[in-house]
Amino acid sequence: MTEPSSDDARTLRRETERVVNEIAQGLRTLDAGAGWFAGLTPTRQQEVLQEVAGYAMQAHMTAADGRAGVARSGVKPTANPSVMICTDPPRYGFASLPAAEHVKAFRVLVSAFAIADTRRRETYCKGACGHAWHNLPAADVSGSSNTAHS
């Protein structure tokens, strides 16, 4: 098996950014996003978890955001990813969890990110945001948006 090219890695990062921000902005359902994530290889899932953890850190996610995210995620509060996201400060080692917990970790992490990022869009970025990912066009709100964007 060959290593993925840097183009493949960039494509995955762009797709991850789009999917996660669509979920955060209500343009894609969490279930649809989790379905996309579940279809990735375990290695790709680890890469996505690392990428989304970076987004959460940039959004200055708090333990309170983590608790609210767990409540939205549909994951039990006692599951490893739920406990990790609710610590103060939140722990971000989701990619190190066993592969069987990756989908739960994705659901918890994206849900908590959505809370933190919404706060940032409504405060720091309100009215003067130049972040392209905060200004996604409303597309297919059913959660089945096409993943082939340029």
Q: Can you walk through the features of this model?
A:
With 150 residues, this protein is an all-alpha fold. It has one domain. Helices cover 56% and strands 0% of the residues. Helix 2 crosses helix 6 and helix 3 runs parallel beside helix 6. The two termini are 27 Å apart.
Which features would summarize this protein structure in a list?
single chain; 6 helices; globular; disordered C terminus; DUF5958
N/C terminus separation:
27 Å
What's the SSE pattern? HHHHHH
Give a short account of the largest sheet.
Answer: none
Radius of gyration: 15 Å
Task: Give unreliable regions as ranges.
Answer: 140-150
Total beta strands:
0
Q: Any idea what the shape is?
A: globular
User: Proportion of β residues?
Assistant: under 5%
Q: What is the overall pLDDT average?
A: 82
Instruction: Return the structural class.
Output: mainly alpha
Q: Classify the helix fraction into a percent range.
A: 55-70%
User: What number of domains?
Assistant: 1
Q: Number of helix segments? A: 6
Pfam family, one: DUF5958
